[in-house]
Amino acid sequence: MNFEKARAHLDSLSFKGIKLGLANTSALLKELGDPHKKFVSVHVGGTNGKGSTSAMIAAILANSGVKCGLYTSPHLETFRERINVNGAIIGKAKAAKLVERVKEAVKKTGVPVTYFEFVTAMAFLHFAEEGAQAVAVEVGMGGRFDSTNVVTPAVSVITSIAMDHREHLGSTLRKIAFEKCGIIKKGSPVVTAVTAPSAIEEIVKTAGERSAPLSASGEDFKCRRLKSVEDGERFDFESGSARYDGLRVSLVGRQQVSNAGMAIKTALILRDNGFEGITENSIRSALAGVFLPGRFEMARKNPPLIYDGAHNPKACSALCRALIERFGHNSRVDFIFGAMGDKDYAKMILNLLPSARSFTFFSPSVPRAVAPDVFAETLTGVKIPRKVARRLEEITRIINSAPRNSVTCVTGSFYTVGEIRAAMSGSLVSDRA
Hints:
Elements: H1 3-12, H2 23-31, E1 40-45, H3 50-63, E2 68-71, E3 83-85, E4 88-89, H4 92-109, H5 115-129, E5 134-138, E6 155-158, H6 166-169, H7 173-180, E7 190-192, H8 197-209, E8 214-216, E9 222-229, E10 232-239, E11 242-249, H9 254-272, H10 280-289, E12 297-301, E13 304-307, H11 313-327, E14 333-337, H12 345-352, E15 356-361, H13 372-377, E16 386-388, H14 392-400, E17 407-411, H15 414-425
Parallel strand pairs: 1-5, 1-6, 2-5, 6-7, 7-8, 13-17, 14-15, 14-17, 15-16
Antiparallel strand pairs: 2-3, 3-4, 9-10, 10-11, 12-13
Helix pairs in contact: 1-4, 2-5, 3-9, 3-10, 4-5, 7-8, 11-12, 14-15
């Protein structure tokens, strides 16, 4: 099977959508030899920040001499971005071989699988075959029934809890926290920066019931943000006898300080459990060099062009705050916005308003995307310029003709960011699931 045929097969799975449950993934992995049991895993869940935190953990491990895998979702331009070992995404030839092997395993088990289940099996098989010693695994959605929850982690991380995916996870923070807590395993340490009272109560309760040692930000470890700098954030970290002053993380926004704190605490736990190569120096250099596309990614400096996959109200609030800190309170940001129909897009747009000068609404070519006219209707009665763009060519023209005193920010969904980012770089988005 060549790469084009492999990609076409993955695309054919997209219509199966979201299916919560572990039975099919477990059966598929068993047929493949249970590759997920051949490496140490760190399982990272949460509403926002799990991708950044996973990337930081993987960077620290790799920088400490550990062969480390990273499994994230969604991707921006190619599904291969989801499967990464020591900073390198899986190659086309290897990806094609894995698609063929997993496809054959699906045929043998006779169970129907979704796109996410299929790619999860591919990732775990790749990590095992590459000899990864540890893997940072990002939860796709929720936790309890997410396909990735077949792993038994050395550490579980719950980054944040906010209202998202209510139709699948519940209508209150406590219910959502209950689902996220599904990744907490008996006796395995837990790290969290969750602060909402009802959510943290659920985490404390679950950790206690499962005899899982809990490290909470603000109590068991502390981060103090010092200042935002051009190339990221500076902060101090403290946990027990470990004190690291003047750290820098290369990702932008105060929330990245919190994410970095969880990554450091996780690394320290791993160090105490056999990964002795983790040092202050390896932590410092890893955080200073970590890169994750689509997270306040400054694609152009003059005039600024930023890609950020903020895809729920809380993430949009964090993005707005970061934009104001970087560019002032004079409402000069021209947003290009597109979101999915299962999101609270009206509140997302409202949360971006304090930094906005204008909105251009656009829908990426995925079935769940909302028509741009619907977004425009959410601003009825609000005095702010807005327009609708229906073709990518319109978007690229708007970005390329941006005046020097402007800031352009593409946001609302990783799908929106991926499609526009690819168009601006002259490439094509190779899969959209």
